[in-house]
Write a structure and sequence with these properties.
The structure is a single chain. The protein is mainly α and 192 residues long. The chain has helices at 2-21, 64-131, 136-171, 173-179, and strands at residues 26-33, 49-56. Strands 1-2 form a two-stranded antiparallel sheet. Helix 1 (2-21) packs antiparallel against helix 2 (64-131) and helix 2 (64-131) runs antiparallel to helix 3. Mean pLDDT is 79; it is low at 187-192.
Amino acid sequence: ETRISQLSLRLQDFNIMLAWSRYLPEAGMDVFSGNPVSGYVDDSTGGDVFAVLKLSIPLLDYGNRSRGVEEARLQKTKTKESARQYRLNFAHRWTQADQRLNLLKATNALTEENLVLAKLEVKRATIEFESGQSSFAQVLEGREKVTQEEIRIAEALFNLRRQKLKRHFMSGDFSRRFFGPQLTPENNTPAE
């Protein structure tokens, strides 16, 4: 997307130059021998060569040329604004991705702590069952909690890895890896 906006800005610069070129007077030059007014060649002007320079300058164009330049400048301003808006949106999405990644890391750590607590509770329930202080149903409930926490850990790891992939995709790591390095607009050499 950034490459497209760079190329679009170059195109707008070209359009401005094209609009300015309409301000230049049209010039022409004719070279011939003979009388430049009548075109008649006689013996008195036989060896002479004449060059005639013609300039065509519009004296009154009703603002058509300046309107073209202003429209080209306005279009470039719009392109710059859309590129700026894209950068702002990207920064916002990047910040959101970082925050989501940090949240998922914290969730993963909390889920691992819950698993440790659930395993300790199963041990306690097993010891109480063996001593006759609780029923086998409480041991099974504790094991069910352990299984549920293991499932939550698997979900948390999946979400964490998926978020890391999204962030890598946003950073362009995958495009560089699979499509090669980006080229800089100055000299078409790899950027990095």
